Amino acid sequence: MTTIAERARELTDTREPFVHATVVRAQDPTSARPGDAAVIRSDGSIEGFVGGVCAESSVRAAALDALREGTALLLRVLPEGAAPFPDTPGARVVVNPCHSGGAIEVFLRPMLPAPAVRVVGDTPISAAVATLAAFLDFDVVAADDSTGCTAVVVAGLGKGEPEAIRAALDAGVGFIAVVASGKRGGVLLDELGLTDAERARVHTPAGLEIGARTPAEIALAIMGEVVRAIRVDGLAPSAGAPAARPQQAVDPVCGMTVLVGAETPQARVDGQDFWFCCAGCLASYTAA
């Protein structure tokens, strides 16, 4: 557990999304025990232990779904012929024909990096935005690179604005707030010669209309608009290429969904590739 906890902290510090899996209940015979844990990364790789090969395959597949949806999931892995388990919100049941015979329940918790906001400028407003963003659990980015940021707030009040806006657009940032009056902001965007799609990503005057006057109030209006864009409009962070979702296949022997990787048991029969949850299913298939 200490090792998995340390690994989870490392992934969190590097802003890498992952799923923290914890065995919460195990029924003999099974190799897993309550408290066993693992982390599953977005490429489907797993570190730690949550059961044997067959159970692990089910956990990995469900973890990727939890990561994609951003919601926690209780996974119950049952042996074939087990009594049905009620289908409840937030829970999923898989029947594992090659499981050892016991049942396990694994809690899958997606760990997504906090949204990042880059604040450009050295003004009282930029300082207030950075302070409020940190209070709201945003990662406040100090570097000049906007890649990976959810939003960029340009609060230079006339200094370095065109360069900051252009850099944020080129980095793929979906929400760029520019602190300026409506008239000055419009002139600024006209001078940049933006496309319609680019202009739609730039918000000026920045912030919700709340009659803000002080730097703190302006920061509140700006971060309120950013939060609304995330929670209501589905604003996502800019990114480089996201991790490719691993290929999935159905084991022709037991019917399990397996993630295809370099170590996944495989057979090529009559020019067609088949993948298996474990060596036992592979041997059963090739012997038939």
From TrEMBL:
Highest taxon above the source species: Bacteria
UniProt cross-references to Pfam families, sorted A to Z: XdhC_C, XdhC_CoxI
Domain TRASH per the UniProt entry, residue ranges: 251-288
Name of the protein this chain belongs to: TRASH domain-containing protein
Record organism: Micromonospora noduli
Lineage: Bacteria, Bacillati, Actinomycetota, Actinomycetes, Micromonosporales
